[in-house]
Amino acid sequence: MSKTLIRGAKVLGGEPQDVLIDGTTIAEVGSGLSAEGAEVVEADGKVLLPGLVDLHTHLREPGREDSETVLTGTRAAASGGYTNVFAMANTFPVADTAGVVEQVWRLGQESGYCDVQPIGAVTVGLEGAKLAELGAMHESAAGVTVFSDDGKCVHDAVIMRRALEYVKAFNGVVAQHAQEPRLTEGAQMNEGVVSAELGLGGWPAVAEESIIARDVLLAEHVGSRVHICHLSTAGSVEIVRWAKSRGIDVTAEVTPHHLLLTDELVRSYNPVYKVNPPLRTERDVLALREALADGTIDIVATDHAPHPHEDKDCEWAAAAMGMVGLETALSVVQETMVDTGLLDWAGVADRMSVKPAQIGQATGHGRPVSAGEPANLTLVDAAYRGQVDPAGFASRSRNTPYEGRELPGRVTHTWLRGKATLVDGKLT
Amino acid sequence: MQRHLISAADLTRDDAVLILDTAEEMARVADRPIKKLPTLRGRTVVNLFFEDSTRTRISFEAAEKRLSADVINFTAKGSSVSKGESLKDTAQTLEAMGVDAVVIRHGASGAPYRLATSGWIDAHVINAGDGTHQHPTQALLDAFTMRRRLVGPDAGLGKDLDGRRVTLVGDILHSRVARSNVDLLHTLGAEVTLVAPPTLLPVGVETWPCEVSYDLDSTLTKSDAVMLLRVQRERMNAAFFPTEREYSRRYGLDGDRMAKMPDHAIVMHPGPMVRGMEITAEVADSGRCTVVEQVTNGVSVRMAVLYLLLGGAEPAVAHARPTEEK
Amino acid sequence: MDKQQEKQGGPQPAAQSEARPVLEGPDIARVLTRIAHEIVERAKGADDVVLLGIPTRGVFLARRLADKLEQITERKIPVGSLDITMYRDDLRMHPPRALARTEIPGDGIDGRLVVLVDDVLFSGRTIRAALDALNDIGRPRAVQLAVLVDRGHRELPIRADYVGKNLPTSLRETVKVQLAEEDGRDTVLLGAKPDAPGAHP
């Protein structure tokens, strides 16, 4: 078996240590470890984290291979330091049967860059009317445990209640895309000062908050756990904080872009800033950061949403919603949380690896960096600062809102069960 | 230096006054035996209309022809070209034919801005109305009409609308005319009040440089000009107001209400009017109603804009506006 | 677009400081009187004359001429202005400017003798534009041209019917007319163009 010695890495941002990988597992963590028979990676003070886990990725395959495939998406994931991604169900056909989730799972196995855990649709065709065969998807080779109609809200309170109850049988979790549909008809951006001026249809915060409030109460009533996707408003934070204080089993995620960008950017009418839920205000951004720091929001998830160029190179109303995020997520989190002093690297490991793995029940991921654990690791050059250049993305799509923006941090190495998928910033 | 007219908010006070003064000279051309100027000879202007608007298109076309521009009309209403890709492709196709300026009407807010800033084309872009965003030439012709009526055609030269009180009534939420007028009238020193049921005011309106009222009667007595905005009957179905009757009772302008206005005050409407809804026939046909003048003035103002953007080596208007004003 | 620019080759404060007067207030009054008499003489009483000044200073000169003509003929002489901006052939070489007023006297110009009045005759392009503009306004019986100064260097086959002063100049020189209505005093200044490109023959 091959050995790799990572020398002088700040494990979770701590004192520099050596980490020896033997085969698929971490053999030893300590100082002055012998390099005998091992390939040596000089970490030179870089930060070593457990491989990142993304609970919210759109890999687009099957159906929209022009924007992303499982292969290109997992390559993008490895570039961004991820070793496990959860693939959302809104593909064509929708991942609402055992057949489709197994296909995605198998494509992930074949890619070799990153583990792919399919998410199953809650309702047939994401239509919100009829429960999909959740049990069959769970029992399939893909072993689905997370269910979501992401892109659409499970808006019917009865269907949501049933789904929350039903998945308890196999300890599944429903991840809700919180968007009251009637309040967001024709919505194009956050409803507020900017939308009033730009004449774009408003997506009010209350459309998200009302659904979250309903769902945490439903979860409490039926004794289920519920996960809230891409929470985006200060009001949502308050509701989740209240729910947790009441002991409701709720977890929540925030995207990197909602931690950094605001609706002021929409003044450019450039659809790279068009995303769902929409970019909110400065006040929301600050509340989200604080909530991620204090644990009200449990995890960062990318909502990586690749779109082909032509779907963004048009007027705002005609453009698709979404941004790619796998390859910039860690940099944005460093910029907004680490460099601001809100979170240390151990906190980053918790929010981007440990917790998402727990919520998604991803075995072998989000584990401590210690002897005997699977060697899923990410090495980050936190001292780096540079401009984002989408031309260098491994993703098939380039719809990033960060083009030309200077961000800190760069993932230089990623190991998936001991196998290097990224070396010196280059995919293997 | 901007080369386009996208938003009334892009105009400085001096830009706007220059346009109004130029329009005043253009208006005189209409009185001549030959209503034509050679100024834009050899320049090609395309009227790219993705939304049906015969009035605005004809007004622009008249302005372009009076300035001797070559005019191409492209009406792309309908499904096949209403998608985003087509805006870019259509614009590029037209530019490949050697178009100097694109006058664009589009149902999507921001489409003219995208056209002007995405590097798709080099031509000048003039916004002839985009979604619920802006309609700057409408605001200019409204301001021109107000200046003529309230200050005077000659007395108004070089002047703005300092201290004039303008009330806009109706569907502010869905109105590009309202947004453009609030911006331009504020720039020109007028005091603007918006009157509408709360459902037809956008969230965020409190940051606009104007007053907001839900009560028409109390503002009428303090208005130099009252502009009524069209209220589409369909809005009723989306619960913006209960019934047509209730709307016109609370926010419509009839003869009794008009009588409360000061003697010099005028009634304006960007058209098309919905008689019996926001305005009664009595008011629409009265001498205080400027609807027909607004149409005439539209041609003069659009001539002025075309001349000032296209007439020379570089545009004479639309200097970058200091950001603190916004 | 800028008439002054055409006549003096751009605004040059330096040139102005060295400029020397070639006509002073009394001289200007005298030549305008002479031109008025010439108009009456050539137009056989000037009973159908319409004076149209070309903005800015041509308009003031036209009004002064009208006053003098009224003194001579004891009749009201129609006077107006003709803005030629939109008819210029060099529009695309400069940013467009605010338009000046075109004011045609009430009875129009059809069948009348129009005398165009301008301050300086130089390339002749302004007058060509003025003839085009007139064409869109009506059909005069005849068109004549009166200028305060003719500095030569014509680029078109145009000549003045009435000239206040023939002033042979080089292209390196500038001619600037100042009138009390606009500039606070009456004078015609001849100056040197400092290092302007093309100024060296």
Automatic annotation (TrEMBL), chain A:
Protein name as catalogued: Dihydroorotase
Annotated organism of origin: Streptomyces ardesiacus
EC number: 3.5.2.3
Catalytic residues (UniProt): D303
Domain Dihydroorotase catalytic: from-to ranges: 45-233
Residues that bind substrate: H58, L59, R60, N90, N276, H307
UniProt xrefs under Gene3D superfamilies: Metal-dependent hydrolases, Urease, subunit C, domain 1
Pfam families: DHOase
Keyword Lipid biosynthesis: no
Automatic annotation (TrEMBL), chain B:
Pathways involved: Pyrimidine metabolism; UMP biosynthesis via de novo pathway; (S)-dihydroorotate from bicarbonate: step 2/3
Enzyme Commission number, as recorded: 2.1.3.2
Family: Belongs to the aspartate/ornithine carbamoyltransferase superfamily. ATCase family.
NCBIfam families: asp_carb_tr, PRK00856.1
Domain annotation Aspartate/ornithine carbamoyltransferase carbamoyl-P binding: ranges: 3-147
Residues the entry annotates as binding L-aspartate: K83, R176, R230
Molecular-function annotations in GO: aspartate carbamoyltransferase activity
Known function: Catalyzes the condensation of carbamoyl phosphate and aspartate to form carbamoyl aspartate and inorganic phosphate, the committed step in the de novo pyrimidine nucleotide biosynthesis pathway.
Family matches, as InterPro entries: Asp/Orn_carbamoyltranf_P-bd (IPR006132), Asp/Orn_carbamoylTrfase (IPR006130), Asp/Orn_carbamoylTrfase_sf (IPR036901), Asp_carbamoyltransf (IPR002082), Asp_carbamoyltransf_Asp/Orn-bd (IPR006131)
Name of the molecule in the record: Aspartate carbamoyltransferase
Subunit structure: Heterododecamer (2C3:3R2) of six catalytic PyrB chains organized as two trimers (C3), and six regulatory PyrI chains organized as three dimers (R2).
Keywords: Pyrimidine biosynthesis, Transferase
Chemical reaction(s) catalysed: carbamoyl phosphate + L-aspartate = N-carbamoyl-L-aspartate + phosphate + H(+)
UniProt binding sites for carbamoyl phosphate: R55, T56, R105, H135, Q138, G271, P272
Matches recorded under PANTHER family: ASPARTATE CARBAMOYLTRANSFERASE (PTHR45753:SF6), ORNITHINE CARBAMOYLTRANSFERASE, MITOCHONDRIAL (PTHR45753)
Domain Aspartate/ornithine carbamoyltransferase Asp/Orn-binding: 163-309
From TrEMBL, chain C:
Pfam families attached to this UniProt entry: Pribosyltran
Reactions that this protein is recorded to catalyse: UMP + diphosphate = 5-phospho-alpha-D-ribose 1-diphosphate + uracil
Residue span, Phosphoribosyltransferase domain: 23-166
Sequence motif PRPP-binding, location on chain: 114-126
Any GO MF annotation of the entry: uracil phosphoribosyltransferase activity
Alphabetized InterPro entries for the sequence: PRTase-like, PRTase_dom, PyrR, PyrR_bifunctional
Transmembrane residue ranges: none
The keyword tRNA processing is assigned to this record: no
PANTHER family, A to Z: BIFUNCTIONAL PROTEIN PYRR
Annotated family: Belongs to the purine/pyrimidine phosphoribosyltransferase family. PyrR subfamily.
Function of the molecule: Also displays a weak uracil phosphoribosyltransferase activity which is not physiologically significant. Regulates the transcription of the pyrimidine nucleotide (pyr) operon in response to exogenous pyrimidines.
Protein name per UniProt: Bifunctional protein PyrR
Gene: pyrR
